[in-house]
Structures are given as structure tokens and as C-alpha cells.
Design brief:
Helix content: under 10%
Oligomer: single chain
Structural class: mainly beta
Distance between the termini: 40 Å
Shape: globular
Largest sheet: 7 strands, mixed
Length: 115
């Protein structure tokens, strides 16, 4: 059974930092590109960051660029998102995603940033 399980979401004050984690199982994780996306109620799903299968290449969306870092540990089947200088507008459900010819999603973890 394929699973992506996010963790690390919590309430944090504006200016704070969080690291989100995503544990993958049930598929060959290191064959897949890893991504983080987020969604705020009433808004479209927004892509945050992506990382190549071997971790050598990273890509960032404009909204959090310079404040986030995506990484992965293929030996542990883990994907991470380090978020710094968080702002209230970063409040969202953050989703882990793995894709190649097939796409897998986690159920999300809620990040709430208070002002």
C-alpha cells in the first residue's frame, strides 16, 4: 500500500520556523520527484517546492522562495521542507507529493502562523 504521511505542522508565531516531514512507503521513493504544495481555504493549490529524485536539483515557487528549503533522505524515504521567517499568509495545509509516471499525495499537515 502506498502512503505519504506528513508531519510537523503546528501553530507558530510570525517570524518563526518549522520543518515539515513526509514519510513515504509502498513505492520506490527515490525514483520519484518530490514536491510540497499548499492550500488555503478558498484558494487554489499552490506549488511550493520540488526536488529531483537524487536531491541534486531543487526548485522553488515564488511565494516562499528564499524562506524555504526542500530536501530528501532517500535512505529513510523521507522528504522535508524547512520553512523560515513564516508569515500569517503562509497559513495553509501543506501536502507532500511524489510523481513520475504516477502521482502520490499525502493527506496534508496544517501550518498556522499567528501574527
Amino acid at each position: 500500500e502506498v502512503n505519504l504521511v506528513e508531519s510537523g505542522g503546528t501553530l507558530v508565531q510570525s517570524g518563526g520556523s518549522l520543518r515539515l516531514s513526509c514519510e513515504a512507503s509502498g513505492f520506490t521513493f527515490d525514483d520519484y520527484v518530490g514536491s510540497w504544495l499548499r492550500q488555503t481555504p478558498g484558494k487554489e493549490l499552490e506549488w511550493v517546492a520540488a526536488i529531483s529524485w537524487n536531491g541534486e536539483n531543487t526548485f522553488y515557487g515564488t511565494s516562499m522562495k528564499g524562506r524555504v528549503a526542500i530536501s530528501r533522505d532517500n535512505a529513510r524515504n523521507m522528504l522535508y521542507l524547512q520553512m523560515n521567517d513564516l508569515k500569517p499568509e503562509d497559513t495553509a495545509i501543506y501536502y507532500c507529493n511524489s510523481y513520475r509516471d504516477t502521482e502520490y499525495w499525502g493527506e496534508g499537515t496544517l501550518v498556522t502562523v499567528s501574527s
